[in-house]
């Protein structure tokens, strides 16, 4: 396995260095896509040792991910580790995802958050529980957390998936399109981390949007099988 970490980041100067350094201890290369930040995120990431792609304007997480993948696909990476830049994905949990990817050969390994009601905002707890249940049921997959952005994906599989998402619906799109093609998706438990920061996710709106998009990806936009 040769793994690149791809970290989309928007105004994450406070945490991005720790994310980069933690990821770099486990993967071959760290690519940060600065999604139009105005707080110096890109400069901090460069100083921490990351390769940085700068987008002039904030286009959303999906846009940043797709831009980063264009760079990853130019390399010899066998897997991409997706993680956020705000430390909600803990670098010390990276080895568990990589070990599962190596052992299972899965097309995608998702870091499934263990949701504890008393340790997270109620709106986000129910949004994740309901959204993950709905999507897993719709697609017939046994995943506890379909919305986690902490995941390892094989690049040979990613090259076959036409990605369109511009925002946080990227996570839903990838699960649906892989499941629809019969790809092997695995999961490992990780800790759900919620601090005092203001989330960029709008739980109710984004959950409804993700379910509607899942229906669109599932039934209206068809594609071939990956065989993964």
Outline of the structure:
This protein has 228 residues and is α/β, with parallel strands linked by helices. It has a single domain (3-220), classed as Spore Coat Polysaccharide Biosynthesis Protein SpsA, Chain A. It is built from eight helices and seven strands.
- Termini, distance in Å? 16 Å
Radius of gyration: 16 Å
How many individual domains?
1
CATH class: Alpha Beta
Low-confidence stretches: 223-227
**SS-derived structural category:** alpha/beta
> Helix-strand pattern, N to C?
EHEHEHEHEHEHHEH
CATH superfamily membership: Spore Coat Polysaccharide Biosynthesis Protein SpsA, Chain A
- The fraction of residues in strands falls at 15-25%
Kindly report the average pLDDT value: 85
Compute the number of strand runs. 7
Q: Helicity range of the residues?
A: 25-40%
Strand order of the largest sheet: 3-2-1-4-6-5-7
- Can you name the CATH architecture? Alpha-Beta Complex
Description:
The structure is a single chain. The protein is α/β, with parallel strands linked by helices and 228 residues long. The protein has a single domain, classed as Spore Coat Polysaccharide Biosynthesis Protein SpsA, Chain A (Alpha-Beta Complex). It is built from eight helices and seven strands, in the order βαβαβαβαβαβααβα. It has helices spanning 16-24, 41-48, 61-72, 94-104, 122-139, 155-158, 170-180, 203-220, and strands at 3-9, 29-35, 51-55, 79-82, 108-114, 151-154, 185-191. The longest helix has 18 residues, at 122-139.
